[in-house]
């Protein structure tokens, strides 16, 4: 009976945690709207995407609950939102560019709601692959391929850049900006000068460090508290149940021994 009581107490203690994890906050709902808008753009349903973005604008102005957004976050959201709206409303922008702009907005909202494992880090493979093509073109002297691949790299980097500014230290962002600006501004020099080509190696190393540090998932301290406390409850419960069973078995064994002694 006591064992059942302890298990019941454990479940009761876990219920608030489970309920909290499932709660949807206003900012989570906004993030969902950004994802729905992106899905509409992928399906070429631009008017539906525009309506979702308009609804997003209404909701963000009314969402007073939850974690307040910082001034920098609001500025980044506003800029990426404006680009997304323009993409869905402007018929002269091609489909791929529409996807890029709305994806940028989608990644920004995710970076705010998922700081430990943001979606923009999933861009590591295409970005690093294209940058490898940039380096290869430089070392082989293929000017046309170099310009083409560098432009592709810059486009991909532009998609994740606003999200990076939410999750990454400003000093790290500025270091990347400096290297990228140099390579982009002095393309011919990078192609011809071995010393300038060292910037390519340095930028590749900085990018890899960036993605590696973001992939080192550190659980939220509150989550660790839940894991530890929950684990402790389970261990204590199982230990108590095992001890009660052991004590009961010993009592039964003693009773049997007493009964045998009395018969003899």
Automatic annotation (TrEMBL):
The chain crosses the membrane at residues 223-243. Keywords: Coiled coil, Membrane, Transmembrane, Transmembrane helix. Residues 193-220 form a coiled coil. The keyword Transmembrane applies. InterPro entries: Spore_YpjB. It holds the Pfam family Spore_YpjB. NCBIfam families: spore_ypjB (TIGR02878). This is Sporulation protein YpjB.
